[in-house]
Amino acid sequence: MGYPANGSSEKPLKFLIYGRTGWIGGLLGKLCESKGIDYQYGSGRLENRLSLESDIASVKPTHVFNAAGVTGRPNVDWCESHKVETIRTNVVGTLTLADVCRDKGLVLINYATGCIFEYDAGHPIESGVGFKEEDTPNFTGSFYSKTKAMVEELLKNYENVCTLRVRMPISSDLANPRNFITKITRYDKVVNIPNSMTILDELLPISIEMAKRNLTGIWNFTNPGVVSHNEILEMYHDYIDSNFSWKNFTLEEQAKVIIAPRSNNELDTNKLKNEFPELLSIKESLVKYVFEPNKKTLGA
């Protein structure tokens, strides 16, 4: 795509990462340390073009990673009442960073979201038919998802951007409140719907490899297949806490306690699996990266 793969004759890797205080941004820094990759966190604000240009001039990166963004605390309902702040970071900021990187001839790895689709007649629940990279987003139930779909559409025009559609991220750190597993174990009630999800322990190292290969375009960045809330909680019960129990409720009941509807979907991962054949299915990845390691430390 006009960005040659980083060969051994090229200058050594140096990553500029945005999102120092975020979950993914923090994990990326730790990964770079473990892999011996030189990196620095950006100090500029995404919506401030001059500050981004200043970061790039001082760091001289080979690649830029954007793990900054507004998801809302404690959840995306926050975005419904903070629309301008959400636009400023998720739309204006992301586009500014992509534009600056293009000017400087740099690939931008952008952690985006796959929560821009919902099951429909062409992609029924549990059909195994997932949304592909080129499909048009059909979920605009939350303002957060709406801004993410807008920015993805605009970023298609930037040949230097690699858009990674992350969904319901999970990691082996079960104490982290951002972890999807941690969230649902703390809810009073959960819906039970199969979804595509992202195991960060497996996929974040793959995103670094994608940077090395200078891959661009849109990628569904989830593990193959789907897993339901109940299946995860059953694993949690079996591996982590045999006393754990939970209650389900319907989408209609859930709608009464949340402000914005939530996205439920399956993403087609053939493109990612073809590039990285070693990629595990969601259930295999959950066992290998999340539940087995925690079983040893926490005891079943």
Automatic annotation (TrEMBL):
The answer on whether this UniProt entry bears the keyword Nucleotide-binding reads no
Its domain of life reads Eukaryota
Task: Keywords in alphabetical order, please.
Answer: Isomerase, Oxidoreductase
Pfam families found in the cross-reference section: Epimerase
The parts of the chain that form a coiled coil are: none
Record domain NAD-dependent epimerase/dehydratase: where: 16-178
Query: Pathway membership of this protein?
Result: Carbohydrate biosynthesis
Question: What is an example of a GO molecular function annotated in this UniProt entry?
Answer: isomerase activity
Q: Which InterPro entries match?
A: dTDP_dehydrorham_reduct, Epimerase_deHydtase, NAD(P)-bd_dom_sf
What GO terms in the biological process aspect are recorded for it? UDP-rhamnose biosynthetic process
What's the protein called, per UniProt?
Answer: Nucleotide-rhamnose synthase/epimerase-reductase
Q: Which organism is it from?
A: Theobroma cacao
